[in-house]
Structures are given as C-alpha cells and as structure tokens.
TrEMBL record, chains A, B, C, D:
Domain spans labelled 6-phosphogluconate dehydrogenase NADP-binding: 5-163
Keyword presence, Oxidoreductase: yes
Domain of life: Bacteria
The protein's name: Sulfolactaldehyde 3-reductase
UniProt xrefs under Gene3D superfamilies: N-(1-d-carboxylethyl)-l-norvaline Dehydrogenase, domain 2, NAD(P)-binding Rossmann-like Domain
InterPro entries membership: 6-PGluconate_DH-like_C_sf, 6PGD_dom2, 6PGDH_NADP-bd, HIBADH-like_NADP-bd, HIBADH-related, NAD(P)-bd_dom_sf
Enzyme category, top tier: oxidoreductase
C-alpha cells in the first residue's frame, strides 16, 4: 500500500504529477493557493487541504512544486507553513526550480528539525509531466534520495542523482542555461540566413548535417578537448576569422548577431591564452582556466 | 578523359583537394606562394606553375582555396594574377571562405571578361578534405553550377546549391556563425557545471538527453514555431526566469556566462514584443520581426 | 533638542552616518550583528541595543543601512526584528541598496501597521559618508519625505526626491547601472589603447577632450536627441562603420572589446529602425521605441 | 605663399576642410567621384581635376578624405590613381578613418616610391570641420609630421602626434570605440530610468552629478587605479552586487540592458582575478592583465 504524500502546488506541472502519484497508489493530499486547481484532483481521489501546514500534517513525504523561491519559502515558513507540520524523519522533496543557495538555506532550517531534504527539479515539458516521463535531477544524501525514488519514479523516466542538497537545482540551471541560450542563438542563425536571402529551411537542413545543428557535446568535444587532444581539426584562429566574417556580413545585412558578437570575444580570450593554433574546442580549456585557475 | 584544372592555394585543405582532383583523372596545374607545398603534389602528378597567371593559362577550370579575401583578390587581380589568363567561358570556382560582398565584387569583374563564376566554400574538417567527403555550399547560376559538379564531386559528398553567386559564402558563414558561437556557449555550460561542483561528464550526459545537447533545430523548432504553433510547451516567461536564476547562480560561483547574459536580454526583447506567454521558440519569431519587419 | 533615532547596520557606510546623526544632536541607538562595530559608536555617545527590536523601540525614526535585501528583511521581520517595535507613525528609512520590488514589498507590510516608509539609498563613497556629503536618492510620499529631511540632511549635501516608495532605489540602480558599466567600458578603451602601442596616458588625455571622456549626457544628448533634433552631427551609419573598424582592430590586437561588440549590435538595431542617416544620438530614440513602444 | 595641395574626397567633412586650406593661402586642386561636390569649391578658388592622378600631379601635398579603406585604396592604386603621380618627397596625408593595418599596408607601398606618409584622421563634427576646429590625431615620422603641420593647422585646433604611421588611426578608433559604445550605454540608462517610472530629465541631472554622467577617466581613474591605489572607495564586490540588482530590476521592467549584462561579466572576471575586495577601478587592472599578461 502506498505512502501518504502531501503535494503543494498543483499547476501546469504539479497537477499531472500529483495525478501520477495517485495512479501509483499513494494517498495524496493537495494544497494550492488557487483553489480552482485542486477541484479536478479531488475528483481523481486526492484529499484537499486548507493550507500548507494541513497538507503536510502526518505526511510521509511533502512535495512542493511552485513557481519561485519566495513561494517555496512562504509555503514552508510562512503563516500556516508546511515546516510547522513536518516531523523528525519526514521526507521533503522540493521539485520547484529555485536558486541553489536558497535551496541550501531552506534545507538548513528544515534539517535542524530532523526533516530529510531532497531537491528534485524537473526537465522536459508539461506533456512529459502528464506522461510520467520527466527528467528529474536530484540532490541530497544517498539515503534520502533512495527513499525519494518511490515518489519520483511515477513522475519521470530519467532520475539522475547529481550530488548533495542543491545539486539537483544546479544541474537543472546548467541544463537550462544551455538550452535557453541556445534557443536565442538558433534564432539568430536562422534570421541571419533569411536576411542573407537564403532559404531558411535549406539553411536548417544544412546545419542539421553539421555541428551547427548537432551540437558539440556529442561530437567535437569527446573527439578532441575532452580526451586531451587539441591538435587542430579546425583552428581557434580560423574560427575567430570566420566569426569576424560572419559578423561583418551580419553588419552589412543589419541582421541581429548579439550572441555571436560576444562569442567572437571568447575566441579572442582563447587567443590571448596562447591557444590560437589549437583546435577550436580549446575554447573550453581556455574558459575553464579563467574560472578554475588551472589547465586541463 | 579529365579536364584541365588550375588549383591555386594548396595548404591544409587545398592540398588534399588538389590530390583528389588528380585521382579523379583531371590534369591539375598547381600554384602556391609557399613553394614547399607544391613539391608533394608534383610527385603525385600535378604540374607546378610559377605564378597564378601561368597556372590559370588554358585551364578549363580555375579553383582558388586561399585563407582570406585579400589573398583571393591578389591571386586574381594582382601582378601575374589569374584573371589575366582566364578566357571567355573559363569556369572559376572560389572555394575560400570570404566575405560574400567581396565574392560578389570579384565575380562582377570576372564576368565582364566572360568568365563563369561559382563560389563553393567547404564545411567539415581537414580529414574530410583528405577523404573527399567535404560539405560544399555552392553559389552561382544553375548552368555554371552544373558545370562545376565535375570538379566538386571528387571533393565532397554533400553539394548544396544555395542560390546565386555569393550564396555559397552566405550559407557557409551562417553555418559557421552557429557552430562557432555554439562552441563558446558549450564551454560556458560545462565550466559552469564544474564551478557548481557538478561532475562535468554527468552534466554533459544529462544535456545530451535534452535540447541543451541536442539542439533546437531538429526538435523544438519543427515541433513549434516553424509550424506556426506557439502554444507554450515551455513559456518565454519561464525561460526568462530560469535564465535569471542561472545567471544569479553563475554570479555567486564567479562562473563566466557572457553568452547567457546576452541571451537573457533576447528573451527580454521577446517579452517586450508581447510574447512572454508564448512558447520559448517564439524568440525566433520576435527576432525575425526585428530584422525582417513583419510577423511570421 | 534632537529626535530619537535607531540606526541598524553600522559598517563602512552606516558607522560614519550614525556618527553624523549624533553630531547633529540626535539621540542615536545602534545595533549591528557584528558587535565590534558598535564599540566605537558607544564612545561617541550612541546607545547600544541588543537586537533590532530593542534598537527600534520607542524611536521616532528607524534607519537601516545593510548590505542586502535579505538582511533588511531579517532586521525588520526576523526574530526580534524591528517591525515588532515600530508604532503607528514611526518613520522608517531604509538607506540600503536593495531591489525596488523588495523595497515595495517591505513597505507594504510596514504600512499595514501604520509605519511611514521612505527609501533613501546613497551615492558616492565612504569618504563622502564621513564628510556628510552623500548623494541621497529618496522615494516616498511627500509628507514622509519632508519628515525624513531632518535625518537625511546631516548625512548628505544632495537630497533628491525621486517619486513614491521604491523610486529612490530605482534612481540609485539606474545611476549605478551607468557608472558600473561605464567603468568596464573605460577599462576596455584604455587597454585597447595600450594593446595598440599607444601611450594610455595620451589616449586618456585625448578622450578627456571628446565625448569619449566627457560623456553624452551633458553634451550630445541635450544638443540633439533630447531637443528633438536628429539631423546628423555624426551619423548612426558612420558610428556603426567606425565601431566595425574598432572591433576589427581589437580582433587583430586580441584586445578585449566585449561592451563594444554588444554596442555595435545596438547600432544595428537603430539601423533596422530606419535611423541609419540620423544623428548617432538616435540610438536613444531607437532603444526607447523598443522599450516604450512609441516614438520620441 | 602657400603650397600646392591636392585634396581628394570633398564631401561633408572634406569640402569644408579643402575650403579652409584655400583660406590659409594654399593652392588647392580637388577631385571627387561625385562631380557635384567640386562645383562649390571651384567657385571658392579651387582647381578641379579629372581624376586622382591629375589631382596629385606636381602637388607638394596630397590629402585623402574618403569614407572607407577601399575608397582610399582605389584613389591611390586604382586606375588613374594618385600613387602614379606622387614623386619622391611628396607628402601624403590620409585623413580618412580606416583600419590601421590597411593604413600601414598603403604606407608601405608608397614609401617604396619615396613618398612621405602621414595618417591624420579627425575627431569632432562637421561643424568643427567648417570652423577649422577639428581634433586631428596624427601618425608618422617626426619629420613628416612637422611638414604636415602647415596643412593640418588650418583644419584643426588640436593636433596630437600619437606615434608612427597608423598611430593616428589607432587613437581615432580607440576614441570612437569609447564614445560610440558610451552612447549606447547612455541610451540604456535613460530608457531604464523611464521604464522604472522615473523622470528621465531628473535621472540625467542626478547622473551629471556622479561618475555615471561625468565619466571615470578624469575622476576615479586618476584618483585610484592609475596611481596604484586599489584600497576600496567602492568595492568590486559591491559594484558586482549592485549591477546584479540593476539587471534584476531591468528584467522585471523589460528594459533593455545589453551592455550592463556584459559589464556584469567583466566584474565576474575581476573577482576571478582575486580583486573582489579592491576598488572598482581594479576592473581596469584585471582586464589589462588578461590582455597584456602582466600586473599593473
């Protein structure tokens, strides 16, 4: 028989997640500031609580899925907050995306009361939430993470333990940093193609055949810099030159090229690090030196 | 029997390309300012010319593969330049990567003398040049491009006709804009992971399972904005919020985040265009509006 | 005879500010989490309180001068926070630099208890704090701001009422946005001069004779865009071209040029807005359109 | 009696400059591709030449004032270019703004023929050209620059010898880099003020009272980093924090903040260099290290 789960925050993502916990056989008590959101869940078998503290009361596991850190703080430590109802040994899983330093601060307060804390923000889309196929990035102590699996497995098909408390948030933010910036870059490239009079569909098709569309993480990086080989397949100096040409073309076309303008500067940094004649993936090595203070 | 080809510029890329033309049965006459580069080709059966004009003399097809636009200009129009030796009907293929506006300027001068001009810069690496498996992006009139195929097919396995003269250069620069900036972004994401105390290999593995590593061109774009569906799978506003968190984390970690900082501004632009509640791929639609002056 | 003032946060800035209030004849009760900081003030005649609530008790005016919004929140609303001790009509002045939206949130909670709230962050340096010559940017209702003057005048020689609660913070952040980014830009220009083999002192001297060193706010802006005159003294198109040259030079020199690379894109935006042939100050008009949605 | 001067390029800037040389008593022969531009000058006493070579023939001094490097190249070395008419000892002054590396290339070719070469691009506006009050930044050998003064003094009131050939161009581009980027930054700050609901005129007035409006070159830099004093008046860490707040505010307001977003990263770089607790002008020292490879 399932455990008793409190689910706080049942919007676009939290709603289907709570439903999947019900389907998995757990007893689920839900709370949301927006009372319209809980109605459907009540029909599906969830118990509805009047506030966060009531939801959390006597639960084996308390889950929050809220938009921002201040909502989490308020749901935990505000008036009638869940923290007042959590006991020694209660498992608390925050699945919201918040700042890792906030996550660590909340965890610190809860642990003082004996609560076991896990952060488990999710990746992918609302459709994946419905299908129980989210990507879940988890931070916490090994024992707590193991306990959490019973509640995470109905929600996602990929559960990655990334390190101690906060590590789930960190992984989520690194992943989203990449995908969100990449979207802006992709937009620039396709707009530039069209501004140049090219067929943007043909441009997309060409790029899908190169690292432009396929990315570096599964191609050039494992083949070169990640195995310590910086003999040039394509030189930093040539990439710097080609980006200069692309920016000059964009300037003539009045095509927006914000990210490329900045990336050009990153190659300048790699050249200043004496890496002009190395493989272009040496940009990673150069940037790493500036951040970590040593060489790879 | 093969045609008579003049190949000017036989360095890291041009050398193996000239060799592949020899293998395909063409008579190849080579020239390079660096005389050491031509020696090996002479052994392989190439004829060596004393200057660009001599190389181009009586050739059916003249190919240049040079580092910069000023080298191409000099090889064509400088002292003993190839232009003086090209006749009405000679096919000239520039495979260098140069500014499209320079390409168009050179073509204009050559066409006045009846020369047929095609630009055909290449993608991929020096190993692909050796293997005859380059990506070749071609600009020029259809008839000229058809004539050029006999000389391009020994060099590459993907030949894309992108439009009129200069279009090959434009496609090349758009492709390289994307791949070169993406390299800098990839470096930032992996350095951020490590600065956050995450295992960078685990981070890479997680991202290879999401659009962070797989890119948007073959995933979110065809699923959403390119088919005109901007109902949110992941909202612009949420992407804006998550990037804000990622930048705040990077600030706490002192991790470099230049491209993300700029991308955050691009999402601000999309929000100012009233697209905050649309799918994040609406960033493309917003950027396109600023450049093309209309809506998609 | 002076009023009773509670001063919370007596570090590098707050310490000399509290001292100036003592000199002006006020009775000052101080509190700081770092007890070493209060010792000197006690000698100078301040009363030392054990916590924020004790400091605020029966004060006519409570002032906070703390590093971050979370410190202000904690000093006000945490355990033994000042909010518990403030009465109907107490004047609260926050002189910390915090996010305007946080400022507005705190003000909202305090006003519910009848407290009069003013934000008054300061500009200039710690030496100015000692000399009582700070720049003070004030937000709040006119009556409250008038009451606050008795406490602000001993601290600064320029007191600017910027608007309702939060407006002081907004002015401060706009001012610091400008001065902080300008510092990074100044560094780039002087490093570029030296990278180019110029004497950086001569470069500084030349620039002090132009808007490069004197700024636009008191020169080109009032002469052109702010009075609606966009006939070109120096055209957007030429500025775009010159920045392109400067960036190409920086690229050849490997001089860092991050801000200029981005500024070049801003001129591209102005050109896309049809402002290429207008005065370069039209960049302001173009940027304003993207943000405010109308023309100036 | 005046010398014989050839002036090539008599547009918005060159026209009034040629007129000032006539006024100073020189015999001036002018050429411009746009024949409408020379008509007025002919009335004022200039002789009109049919091409650049004819203009340069038998001149003591040849001056070019053209929009781009390719125009200069063409006026010198194209068909009927001025280079063919310059003799041993002719003084050539290029007052156009072009890439220093192009300037050096042209000078190299002309010196082979005994021509004395000086670059002398100008600053300030077209009104200053009319008034003979330009800022002239000069590069060249001391003897050549001394000869050039007779022709530059009628044109400007500030003549700065910046170093060998090309140094004038370098100084011009550094100056314009700063002033052009500063314009974009100024626009952002004023738009941000208005987006925040502040009176932009009041914001401008406040900033004119701080380094935001006055600049760092004549204030904080000579007071701190340039005399080797990095004890903090305002700490790098605090500037980093304040910029973070300003960017967060801009994000909430949807105000464009491209340059500030990038400048925030520059402060991150200074922090990674261990300069967080130093004066904010240490950003210059940190950036200089990345470019020059040593400490100041």
């Amino acid at each position: 028989m399932g455990a008793s789960v409190s689910f706080i925050g049942v919007g676009t993502m939290g709603g289907p997640m709570a439903r999947n916990l019900l389907r998995a056989g757990h007893r689920v008590r839900v709370f949301d500031l927006d009372s319209r959101l809980v109605a459907g869940l009540e029909k599906d078998g969830a118990e509805v609580a009047a506030n966060a503290a009531a939801a959390a009361s006597e639960a084996d596991c308390v889950i929050t899925m809220l938009p921002r850190g201040e909502h989490v703080e308020s749901a935990l430590f505000g008036d009638q907050g869940a923290a007042t109802a959590m006991r020694e040994g209660t498992l608390y899983i925050d699945m919201s995306t918040i700042l890792p330093s906030h996550c660590e601060r909340f965890a610190h307060r809860l642990r003082a009361a004996g609560v076991c804390v896990v952060d488990a923000p999710v990746g992918r889309s609302s459709q994946h939430a419905i299908d129980g196929k989210l990507l879940i990035m988890v931070g916490g102590e090994a024992g707590d993470v193991d306990r959490a699996r019973a509640f995470l497995e109905p929600l996602g098909d990929t559960i990655v333990h990334c390190g101690p408390t906060g590590a789930g948030q960190k992984m989520k933010l690194v992943n989203n940093y990449m995908s969100i910036a990449l979207n802006a870059l992709t937009a620039e490239a396709l707009v530039m193609a069209e501004s140049a009079g090219l067929d943007p569909e043909q441009a997309r098709s060409v790029m899908l055949g190169t690292v432009a569309g396929q990315g570096h993480m599964g191609t050039t990086y494992p083949a070169k810099v990640l195995k310590g080989d910086l003999t040039p397949g394509f030189m930093v100096d040539l990439a710097h030159k080609d980006m200069g040409l692309a920016l000059a073309m964009a300037g003539e076309l009045d095509a927006p090229a914000w990210l490329g303008a900045v990336a050009h500067q990153t190659y300048g940094l790699a050249r200043r690090h004496g890496r002009g004649a190395e493989d272009w993936t040496a940009v990673y090595a150069a940037l790493r030196e500036t951040a970590m203070g040593d060489e790879r």
